[in-house]
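Section 5: illustrative case.
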Protein backbone atom coordinates (compact mmCIF):
# COMPACT_ATOMS: atom_id res chain seq x y z
CA UNK A 1 0.00 0.00 0.00
CA UNK A 2 1.42 3.39 -1.06
CA UNK A 3 1.29 6.61 0.93
CA UNK A 4 -0.09 9.56 -1.01
CA UNK A 5 0.44 13.12 0.19
CA UNK A 6 -2.55 15.20 -0.92
CA UNK A 7 -2.90 18.96 -0.75
CA UNK A 8 -6.53 19.99 -1.08
CA UNK A 9 -7.41 23.61 -0.40
CA UNK A 10 -11.13 22.78 -0.20
CA UNK A 11 -12.34 19.60 1.53
CA UNK A 12 -15.68 19.22 3.27
CA UNK A 13 -17.76 16.01 3.50
CA UNK A 14 -20.90 18.11 4.10
CA UNK A 15 -20.66 20.39 1.06
CA UNK A 16 -20.89 20.04 -2.69
CA UNK A 17 -18.96 21.77 -5.49
CA UNK A 18 -15.16 21.99 -5.01
CA UNK A 19 -15.34 21.11 -1.30
CA UNK A 20 -17.35 17.97 -2.03
CA UNK A 21 -15.11 16.98 -4.91
CA UNK A 22 -12.03 17.39 -2.73
CA UNK A 23 -13.51 15.07 -0.12
CA UNK A 24 -14.94 12.45 -2.47
CA UNK A 25 -11.74 12.12 -4.51
CA UNK A 26 -9.58 11.97 -1.36
CA UNK A 27 -11.81 9.23 0.04
CA UNK A 28 -11.59 7.29 -3.23
CA UNK A 29 -7.79 7.49 -3.14
CA UNK A 30 -7.83 6.23 0.46
CA UNK A 31 -9.55 3.00 -0.60
CA UNK A 32 -6.24 1.57 -1.78
CA UNK A 33 -3.66 3.87 -0.20
CA UNK A 34 -2.67 5.54 3.01
CA UNK A 35 -3.11 9.27 2.57
CA UNK A 36 -1.74 12.35 4.31
CA UNK A 37 -4.33 15.05 3.60
CA UNK A 38 -3.36 18.70 4.08
CA UNK A 39 -6.13 21.27 3.83
CA UNK A 40 -7.18 24.66 5.21
CA UNK A 41 -7.64 24.83 8.99
CA UNK A 42 -11.29 25.86 8.60
CA UNK A 43 -12.01 22.45 7.05
CA UNK A 44 -10.63 20.49 10.01
CA UNK A 45 -13.71 20.84 12.30
CA UNK A 46 -15.91 19.39 9.54
CA UNK A 47 -13.51 16.48 9.09
CA UNK A 48 -13.46 15.94 12.88
CA UNK A 49 -17.24 15.80 12.95
CA UNK A 50 -17.42 13.40 10.01
CA UNK A 51 -14.77 11.04 11.39
CA UNK A 52 -16.50 10.91 14.79
CA UNK A 53 -19.94 10.17 13.33
CA UNK A 54 -18.98 7.62 10.66
CA UNK A 55 -17.73 4.10 11.23
CA UNK A 56 -16.02 3.50 7.91
CA UNK A 57 -12.82 1.40 7.68
CA UNK A 58 -11.57 3.62 4.84
CA UNK A 59 -11.23 6.52 7.26
CA UNK A 60 -8.43 4.71 9.08
CA UNK A 61 -6.32 5.25 5.95
CA UNK A 62 -6.70 9.04 6.18
CA UNK A 63 -4.44 11.25 8.28
CA UNK A 64 -5.43 14.92 7.95
CA UNK A 65 -3.78 18.20 8.91
CA UNK A 66 -4.80 21.86 8.75
CA UNK A 67 -2.40 24.46 7.38
CA UNK A 68 -2.93 28.22 6.97
CA UNK A 69 -0.85 31.27 6.29
CA UNK A 70 -0.45 33.83 9.11
CA UNK A 71 -3.67 35.53 10.25
CA UNK A 72 -2.59 38.91 8.84
CA UNK A 73 -2.47 37.45 5.32
CA UNK A 74 -5.81 35.72 5.88
CA UNK A 75 -7.33 39.06 6.91
CA UNK A 76 -5.99 40.78 3.77
CA UNK A 77 -7.35 37.93 1.64
CA UNK A 78 -10.87 38.49 2.97
CA UNK A 79 -10.64 42.25 2.38
CA UNK A 80 -9.56 41.78 -1.24
CA UNK A 81 -12.40 39.40 -2.11
CA UNK A 82 -11.91 37.06 -5.09
CA UNK A 83 -8.54 38.64 -5.96
CA UNK A 84 -7.37 37.86 -2.44
CA UNK A 85 -8.34 34.21 -2.72
CA UNK A 86 -6.23 33.75 -5.87
CA UNK A 87 -3.15 35.35 -4.28
CA UNK A 88 -3.71 33.49 -1.01
CA UNK A 89 -3.92 30.12 -2.76
CA UNK A 90 -0.69 30.79 -4.64
CA UNK A 91 1.11 31.58 -1.39
CA UNK A 92 -0.59 28.66 0.37
CA UNK A 93 0.76 26.26 -2.24
CA UNK A 94 4.20 27.82 -2.01
CA UNK A 95 4.44 27.89 1.80
CA UNK A 96 3.01 24.42 2.26
CA UNK A 97 6.33 23.05 1.02
CA UNK A 98 8.10 24.31 4.13
CA UNK A 99 5.28 22.92 6.31
CA UNK A 100 5.65 19.45 4.75
CA UNK A 101 9.42 19.50 5.24
CA UNK A 102 9.04 20.63 8.84
CA UNK A 103 6.58 17.80 9.59
CA UNK A 104 8.92 15.30 7.88
CA UNK A 105 6.06 13.46 6.21
CA UNK A 106 7.07 10.24 4.46
CA UNK A 107 5.20 9.52 1.22
CA UNK A 108 5.52 7.81 -2.16
CA UNK A 109 3.40 10.09 -4.36
CA UNK A 110 2.35 13.76 -4.13
CA UNK A 111 -1.01 14.92 -5.47
CA UNK A 112 -2.16 18.56 -5.66
CA UNK A 113 -5.91 17.94 -5.75
CA UNK A 114 -7.56 21.40 -5.79
CA UNK A 115 -8.17 24.45 -6.42
CA UNK A 116 -9.44 23.25 -9.78
CA UNK A 117 -8.20 26.35 -11.61
CA UNK A 118 -5.57 25.65 -14.26
CA UNK A 119 -4.01 29.10 -13.84
CA UNK A 120 -2.39 28.40 -10.45
CA UNK A 121 0.75 26.21 -10.27
CA UNK A 122 1.62 23.40 -7.90
CA UNK A 123 5.00 23.15 -6.19
CA UNK A 124 4.87 19.59 -4.90
CA UNK A 125 7.36 18.51 -7.56
CA UNK A 126 10.15 19.93 -5.36
CA UNK A 127 10.08 16.67 -3.35
CA UNK A 128 11.25 14.73 -6.42
CA UNK A 129 8.45 12.18 -6.07
CA UNK A 130 5.90 11.23 -8.75
CA UNK A 131 3.62 14.28 -8.73
CA UNK A 132 0.00 14.43 -9.88
CA UNK A 133 -1.97 17.61 -10.45
CA UNK A 134 -5.69 18.15 -10.70
CA UNK A 135 -8.33 17.82 -11.93
CA UNK A 136 -7.78 21.36 -13.25
CA UNK A 137 -9.57 23.45 -15.84
CA UNK A 138 -10.87 26.86 -16.81
CA UNK A 139 -13.90 28.65 -18.19
CA UNK A 140 -13.50 29.55 -21.87
CA UNK A 141 -14.46 32.94 -23.27
CA UNK A 142 -18.21 33.39 -23.67
CA UNK A 143 -18.96 33.87 -27.40
CA UNK A 144 -19.20 37.62 -28.08
CA UNK A 145 -22.72 37.69 -29.52
CA UNK A 146 -24.11 35.71 -26.60
CA UNK A 147 -22.85 38.36 -24.18
CA UNK A 148 -23.72 41.52 -26.09
CA UNK A 149 -27.31 40.56 -26.93
CA UNK A 150 -28.42 40.64 -23.31
CA UNK A 151 -25.61 41.59 -20.92
CA UNK A 152 -23.93 44.38 -22.90
CA UNK A 153 -20.40 45.66 -23.38
CA UNK A 154 -19.52 45.94 -19.70
CA UNK A 155 -19.91 42.19 -19.07
CA UNK A 156 -18.14 41.49 -22.35
CA UNK A 157 -15.06 43.43 -21.18
CA UNK A 158 -15.24 41.79 -17.72
CA UNK A 159 -15.24 38.36 -19.36
CA UNK A 160 -12.30 39.21 -21.65
CA UNK A 161 -10.33 40.77 -18.80
CA UNK A 162 -10.87 37.68 -16.66
CA UNK A 163 -9.64 35.45 -19.49
CA UNK A 164 -6.61 37.70 -20.17
CA UNK A 165 -5.53 37.68 -16.53
CA UNK A 166 -5.69 33.88 -16.48
CA UNK A 167 -3.64 33.79 -19.70
CA UNK A 168 -0.96 35.90 -18.01
CA UNK A 169 -0.85 33.58 -15.00
CA UNK A 170 -0.30 30.55 -17.25
CA UNK A 171 2.19 32.09 -19.64
CA UNK A 172 4.19 34.75 -17.80
CA UNK A 173 4.89 32.98 -14.51
CA UNK A 174 8.08 30.88 -14.91
CA UNK A 175 7.10 28.77 -11.88
CA UNK A 176 3.85 27.85 -13.59
CA UNK A 177 5.65 26.79 -16.76
CA UNK A 178 8.10 24.79 -14.65
CA UNK A 179 5.22 23.08 -12.81
CA UNK A 180 3.70 21.92 -16.11
CA UNK A 181 7.09 20.55 -17.11
CA UNK A 182 7.93 18.79 -13.82
CA UNK A 183 4.67 17.05 -12.80
CA UNK A 184 4.13 13.41 -13.75
CA UNK A 185 0.48 13.53 -14.82
CA UNK A 186 -2.18 16.24 -15.08
CA UNK A 187 -5.89 15.48 -14.70
CA UNK A 188 -7.95 17.86 -16.87
CA UNK A 189 -11.67 18.58 -16.76
CA UNK A 190 -12.18 19.19 -20.48
CA UNK A 191 -10.49 18.91 -23.85
CA UNK A 192 -9.47 22.59 -24.06
CA UNK A 193 -7.10 22.46 -21.07
CA UNK A 194 -4.24 20.65 -22.80
CA UNK A 195 -3.65 23.39 -25.38
CA UNK A 196 -4.24 26.24 -22.92
CA UNK A 197 -1.65 25.03 -20.39
CA UNK A 198 0.68 23.86 -23.19
CA UNK A 199 1.35 20.46 -21.68
CA UNK A 200 2.82 17.38 -23.29
CA UNK A 201 -0.14 15.24 -24.38
CA UNK A 202 1.41 12.19 -22.71
CA UNK A 203 0.86 13.83 -19.33
CA UNK A 204 -2.83 14.51 -19.82
CA UNK A 205 -5.56 12.35 -18.25
CA UNK A 206 -9.20 13.43 -18.75
CA UNK A 207 -11.07 13.48 -15.43
CA UNK A 208 -14.03 15.74 -14.84
CA UNK A 209 -14.03 17.38 -11.42
CA UNK A 210 -17.71 16.70 -10.90
CA UNK A 211 -19.57 13.61 -9.82
CA UNK A 212 -22.60 12.53 -7.87
CA UNK A 213 -24.05 9.67 -5.91
CA UNK A 214 -26.19 7.23 -7.91
CA UNK A 215 -29.96 7.50 -7.61
CA UNK A 216 -30.95 3.94 -6.74
CA UNK A 217 -34.69 4.09 -7.34
CA UNK A 218 -36.31 3.67 -10.74
CA UNK A 219 -36.75 6.98 -12.52
CA UNK A 220 -40.23 7.58 -13.88
CA UNK A 221 -41.59 10.33 -16.10
CA UNK A 222 -43.93 12.66 -14.16
CA UNK A 223 -47.49 11.81 -15.21
CA UNK A 224 -48.88 15.35 -15.39
CA UNK A 225 -47.67 18.62 -16.87
CA UNK A 226 -44.25 19.38 -18.33
CA UNK A 227 -41.67 20.92 -16.02
CA UNK A 228 -38.44 22.34 -17.44
CA UNK A 229 -35.66 22.67 -14.86
CA UNK A 230 -32.48 24.75 -14.75
CA UNK A 231 -30.08 25.07 -11.80
CA UNK A 232 -27.11 27.36 -11.18
CA UNK A 233 -25.76 30.74 -10.21
CA UNK A 234 -27.44 33.66 -11.99
CA UNK A 235 -24.31 34.83 -13.77
CA UNK A 236 -23.75 35.93 -17.36
CA UNK A 237 -21.63 32.84 -18.04
CA UNK A 238 -24.54 30.50 -17.24
CA UNK A 239 -26.82 31.64 -20.09
CA UNK A 240 -30.05 31.97 -18.10
CA UNK A 241 -31.22 34.63 -20.55
CA UNK A 242 -31.31 31.89 -23.21
CA UNK A 243 -33.07 29.55 -20.77
CA UNK A 244 -35.90 32.04 -20.26
CA UNK A 245 -36.17 33.09 -23.90
CA UNK A 246 -36.14 29.50 -25.17
CA UNK A 247 -38.76 28.46 -22.63
CA UNK A 248 -40.92 31.46 -23.57
CA UNK A 249 -40.72 30.63 -27.29
CA UNK A 250 -41.57 27.00 -26.52
CA UNK A 251 -44.45 27.95 -24.21
CA UNK A 252 -46.04 30.47 -26.60
CA UNK A 253 -45.94 27.90 -29.43
CA UNK A 254 -48.37 25.66 -27.52
CA UNK A 255 -52.15 25.77 -27.72
CA UNK A 256 -54.06 27.01 -24.68
CA UNK A 257 -54.89 23.42 -23.76
CA UNK A 258 -51.27 22.28 -24.17
CA UNK A 259 -50.04 25.08 -21.90
CA UNK A 260 -51.76 23.52 -18.91
CA UNK A 261 -49.17 22.40 -16.37
CA UNK A 262 -46.18 23.64 -18.43
CA UNK A 263 -43.67 25.58 -16.32
CA UNK A 264 -40.02 26.45 -15.79
CA UNK A 265 -38.26 25.98 -12.43
CA UNK A 266 -35.11 28.03 -11.82
CA UNK A 267 -33.03 27.10 -8.77
CA UNK A 268 -30.27 29.47 -7.75
CA UNK A 269 -29.31 33.02 -6.92
CA UNK A 270 -26.86 35.61 -8.15
CA UNK A 271 -26.17 39.08 -9.46
CA UNK A 272 -28.32 38.75 -12.59
CA UNK A 273 -31.53 37.74 -10.80
CA UNK A 274 -33.27 41.11 -11.16
CA UNK A 275 -32.47 41.43 -14.86
CA UNK A 276 -33.73 37.88 -15.41
CA UNK A 277 -36.96 38.66 -13.53
CA UNK A 278 -37.53 41.61 -15.87
CA UNK A 279 -36.77 39.41 -18.88
CA UNK A 280 -39.35 36.82 -17.77
CA UNK A 281 -41.95 39.58 -17.49
CA UNK A 282 -41.04 40.97 -20.90
CA UNK A 283 -41.30 37.50 -22.47
CA UNK A 284 -44.73 36.97 -20.90
CA UNK A 285 -43.82 33.92 -18.80
CA UNK A 286 -43.49 35.37 -15.28
CA UNK A 287 -46.42 33.29 -14.00
CA UNK A 288 -44.97 30.11 -15.48
CA UNK A 289 -41.60 30.40 -13.71
CA UNK A 290 -40.93 29.19 -10.16
CA UNK A 291 -37.87 30.90 -8.62
CA UNK A 292 -36.23 28.87 -5.87
CA UNK A 293 -33.15 29.79 -3.83
CA UNK A 294 -30.52 27.17 -2.98
CA UNK A 295 -32.09 24.31 -1.01
CA UNK A 296 -30.70 21.31 0.86
CA UNK A 297 -29.90 18.05 -0.88
CA UNK A 298 -33.14 16.24 0.03
CA UNK A 299 -35.29 19.09 -1.30
CA UNK A 300 -33.20 19.29 -4.45
CA UNK A 301 -33.76 15.59 -5.01
CA UNK A 302 -37.51 16.11 -5.13
CA UNK A 303 -37.12 19.01 -7.57
CA UNK A 304 -35.07 16.83 -9.94
CA UNK A 305 -37.63 14.03 -9.70
CA UNK A 306 -40.53 16.24 -10.78
CA UNK A 307 -38.75 17.60 -13.87
CA UNK A 308 -39.24 16.45 -17.47
CA UNK A 309 -36.18 18.13 -19.00
CA UNK A 310 -33.01 19.91 -17.88
CA UNK A 311 -32.31 23.06 -19.89
CA UNK A 312 -28.76 24.34 -19.30
CA UNK A 313 -27.35 26.62 -22.05
CA UNK A 314 -24.26 27.52 -20.03
CA UNK A 315 -20.98 28.65 -21.62
CA UNK A 316 -18.80 27.54 -18.68
CA UNK A 317 -15.98 24.99 -18.73
CA UNK A 318 -17.64 22.58 -16.31
CA UNK A 319 -21.11 22.33 -14.69
CA UNK A 320 -21.65 20.26 -11.53
CA UNK A 321 -25.38 20.18 -12.19
CA UNK A 322 -25.01 18.13 -15.39
CA UNK A 323 -23.97 14.90 -13.59
CA UNK A 324 -26.70 15.54 -11.01
CA UNK A 325 -29.32 15.85 -13.72
CA UNK A 326 -27.95 12.76 -15.47
CA UNK A 327 -28.21 10.81 -12.22
CA UNK A 328 -31.95 11.51 -12.17
CA UNK A 329 -32.35 10.41 -15.76
CA UNK A 330 -33.27 13.85 -17.04
CA UNK A 331 -33.05 14.70 -20.75
CA UNK A 332 -30.26 17.30 -21.04
CA UNK A 333 -30.40 20.29 -23.40
CA UNK A 334 -27.13 22.23 -23.59
CA UNK A 335 -24.64 23.79 -25.98
CA UNK A 336 -22.18 21.57 -27.81
CA UNK A 337 -19.17 23.02 -25.99
CA UNK A 338 -16.24 21.94 -23.79
CA UNK A 339 -18.25 22.42 -20.60
CA UNK A 340 -21.78 21.02 -20.32
CA UNK A 341 -21.52 19.58 -23.84
CA UNK A 342 -18.56 17.35 -22.96
CA UNK A 343 -20.01 16.49 -19.55
CA UNK A 344 -23.22 15.29 -21.18
CA UNK A 345 -21.15 12.91 -23.31
CA UNK A 346 -23.33 10.59 -25.40
CA UNK A 347 -26.50 11.76 -23.67
CA UNK A 348 -28.80 14.70 -24.24
CA UNK A 349 -29.45 17.18 -27.02
CA UNK A 350 -26.52 19.47 -27.88
CA UNK A 351 -27.05 22.72 -29.73
CA UNK A 352 -24.15 24.02 -31.83
CA UNK A 353 -23.19 27.67 -31.51
CA UNK A 354 -24.54 29.65 -34.47
CA UNK A 355 -26.22 32.96 -33.71
CA UNK A 356 -28.15 34.10 -30.66
CA UNK A 357 -31.69 33.97 -32.08
CA UNK A 358 -31.16 30.63 -33.81
CA UNK A 359 -29.81 29.07 -30.62
CA UNK A 360 -32.94 30.16 -28.76
CA UNK A 361 -35.13 28.66 -31.49
CA UNK A 362 -33.11 25.42 -31.49
CA UNK A 363 -33.57 24.97 -27.74
CA UNK A 364 -37.27 25.83 -27.98
CA UNK A 365 -37.86 23.41 -30.89
CA UNK A 366 -36.22 20.58 -28.97
CA UNK A 367 -38.38 21.26 -25.93
CA UNK A 368 -41.41 20.92 -28.22
CA UNK A 369 -40.10 17.60 -29.53
CA UNK A 370 -39.38 16.18 -26.07
CA UNK A 371 -42.77 17.24 -24.73
CA UNK A 372 -44.73 15.86 -27.66
CA UNK A 373 -42.81 12.60 -28.06
CA UNK A 374 -42.89 10.39 -24.94
CA UNK A 375 -40.76 7.74 -26.67
CA UNK A 376 -38.04 10.34 -27.30
CA UNK A 377 -38.23 11.54 -23.70
CA UNK A 378 -37.87 7.97 -22.44
CA UNK A 379 -34.87 7.33 -24.72
CA UNK A 380 -33.15 10.50 -23.55
CA UNK A 381 -33.77 9.47 -19.94
CA UNK A 382 -32.20 6.06 -20.54
CA UNK A 383 -29.21 7.69 -22.25
CA UNK A 384 -28.71 10.03 -19.29
CA UNK A 385 -28.69 7.23 -16.74
CA UNK A 386 -26.29 5.16 -18.85
CA UNK A 387 -23.89 8.11 -19.23
CA UNK A 388 -23.98 8.80 -15.52
CA UNK A 389 -23.18 5.22 -14.57
CA UNK A 390 -20.37 5.10 -17.12
CA UNK A 391 -18.56 8.30 -16.07
CA UNK A 392 -19.80 10.07 -12.98
CA UNK A 393 -20.03 7.65 -10.09
CA UNK A 394 -17.20 8.46 -7.68
CA UNK A 395 -15.91 4.87 -7.82
CA UNK A 396 -15.24 5.28 -11.56
CA UNK A 397 -13.17 8.41 -10.92
CA UNK A 398 -11.30 6.66 -8.12
CA UNK A 399 -10.33 3.86 -10.51
CA UNK A 400 -8.96 6.37 -13.04
CA UNK A 401 -6.78 8.02 -10.40
CA UNK A 402 -5.59 4.72 -8.95
CA UNK A 403 -4.66 3.40 -12.41
CA UNK A 404 -2.72 6.58 -13.11
CA UNK A 405 -0.67 6.09 -9.94
CA UNK A 406 0.46 2.73 -11.32
CA UNK A 407 1.83 4.18 -14.55
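Designed sequence:
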Amino acid sequence: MKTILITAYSVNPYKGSEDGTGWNLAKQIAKENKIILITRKNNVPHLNKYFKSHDDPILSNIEYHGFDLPSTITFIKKKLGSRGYVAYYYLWQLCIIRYIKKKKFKFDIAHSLNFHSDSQPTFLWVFKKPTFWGPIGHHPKVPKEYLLKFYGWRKYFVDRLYYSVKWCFRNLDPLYRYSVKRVTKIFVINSSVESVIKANSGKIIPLSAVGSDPVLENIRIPKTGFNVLSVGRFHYMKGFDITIKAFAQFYHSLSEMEKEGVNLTLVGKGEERNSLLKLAEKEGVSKQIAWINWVNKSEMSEIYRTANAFLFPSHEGAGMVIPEALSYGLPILCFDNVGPGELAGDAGVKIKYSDYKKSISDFADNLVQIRSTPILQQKLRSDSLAEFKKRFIWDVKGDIIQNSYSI
